[in-house]
Amino acid sequence: MFSANASELELPAVPADDLYVDMVSAVEQARVTQCTIYRWIRDGEVRSFKSGRQRLVNLADVIRRSRERCGVRPYAVYEDLKTRIVSFKPFFSDDQKQQLAALLTE
């Protein structure tokens, strides 16, 4: 139904096994949510450790695990859809804008 560009959905090459990054970098590079990464950590599929108040995750584990998922990347598709909807926003009435905002924040 909705498709993001193939280049937006491609993952980077698997990095060296000893590269640990912060959660924000892992989310951006693997195009998954933080909740997904935390679930993988809890399930023992992604190595991580805490450094002070920040959790660092093994980027190679995250990318490998994200490649094992089905071909659909919900996060990337959602972001693409949100961008498309915002581009049509000037054509909506005020009531429709409020309804749209409510739907996107759910």
Name the beta content range.
Answer: 5-15%
Please give the domain count: 2
Strand order of the largest sheet: 1-3-2
The average pLDDT value, as a whole number, equals 76
Largest sheet, strands/sense/barrel: 3 strands, antiparallel
Q: How many alpha or pi helices?
A: 6
Q: Identify the overall geometry.
A: elongated
Instruction: Give the termini distance in whole angstroms.
Output: 21 Å
Which class do the helix and strand fractions yield? mainly alpha
Say how many strands there are: 3
- The CATH architecture name of the largest domain reads Orthogonal Bundle
In the CATH scheme, the class of the largest domain would be Mainly Alpha
- Helicity, as a percent range: 40-55%
Unreliable segments of 5+ consecutive residues = 1-9
CATH fold node name of the largest domain: Arc Repressor Mutant, subunit A
Q: What Rg do the Cα atoms give? A: 17 Å
Q: What is the H/E string?
A: HEHHEEHHH
